[in-house]
Automatic annotation (TrEMBL):
Cofactor(s) needed by this chain: FMN; FAD
Name of this chain's protein: Cyanocobalamin reductase / alkylcobalamin dealkylase
Compartment annotation: Cytoplasm
GO CC annotations on file: cytoplasm
Keywords: Cobalamin, Cobalt, Cytoplasm, FAD, Flavoprotein, FMN, NADP, Oxidoreductase
Main location (coarse class): cytoplasm
GO biological process: cobalamin metabolic process
Positions of transmembrane segments: none
Keyword Cell cycle in annotation: no
Pfam families per UniProt: MMACHC
Biological source species: Nothoprocta pentlandii
Enzyme Commission number: 1.16.1.6, 2.5.1.151
Keyword Oxidoreductase listed: yes
Length: 215
């Protein structure tokens, strides 16, 4: 429910819907790369593509929206920002309150070893670890669910030691991918997918075989 999200955030970040409004957080799993992105790029090859992943997600969620012709469906994507440069929604907070993935933050560590350093939090999924992404939130403004019960996210990094290790790796060594394997995972990115996301955005078109015009 939108109210779960708004309850843990400052008013500046609230979603402007009644608290019982139904919402879905959309995650992409590792297989998205082969099952969705590559077929999408292949199909759209001759069109101008700005960001292949963002446009792929937008395409598929537009298809979802079409499945509900009698319902109003609002979609907010993870990359959308407000005029003040703030994100339209805080993806990791949304995933946590929806029970989709646990958002580990500095406050989850009792004996903080970082002093005055700035430490960012990160979501971990019980099945995919850090090998997933939060892509969007789907809102159904005309559907109110006052009786919907909130499910807590699975706390899969439960020890103090592991939480410190996770936040250390995410904040200071994120390029080596290790934080994503903080728990045992069922599926992770392929080497091709890792290479794609490790490449600077402007150079990713070549990896997907897109023509120069798309750049």
């Amino acid at each position: 429910k939108v109210g779960w999200y708004n309850a843990v955030l400052q008013p500046a970040f609230h979603l402007p819907y009644p608290e019982d409004t139904l919402a879905f957080v959309v995650l992409s799993t590792p297989s998205m790369f082969d099952k969705a992105l590559k077929p999408f790029v292949n199909k759209e090859r001759l069109k101008i593509i700005r960001d292949p992943v963002d446009q792929c997600v937008s395409h598929h969620l537009s298809c979802v929206k079409e499945k509900f012709p009698d319902q109003k469906v609002d979609i907010i994507y993870d990359y959308e920002i407000l005029p003040n440069r703030k994100p339209k929604f805080l993806a990791q907070t949304a995933a946590h309150v929806a029970g989709a993935a646990y958002y580990y933050q500095r406050k989850d560590v009792k004996l903080d070893p970082w002093g005055k350093k700035r430490i960012y939090g990160v979501c971990i999924h019980p099945k995919y670890g850090g090998w997933f992404a939060i892509r969007a939130v789907l809102l159904f403004p005309d559907i109110q669910v006052p009786l919907l019960e909130q499910s807590a996210p699975i706390d899969c990094v439960s020890t103090e030691e592991k939480r410190i290790e996770l936040l250390e790796q995410f904040n200071f060594h994120w390029q080596d991918w290790r934080y994503r394997d903080i728990v045992e995972v069922k599926e992770r990115y392929s080497e091709e997918q890792k290479a794609y996301f490790a490449t600077r955005p402007a150079e990713r078109f070549g990896l997907l075989g897109l023509p120069g015009a798309a750049q």
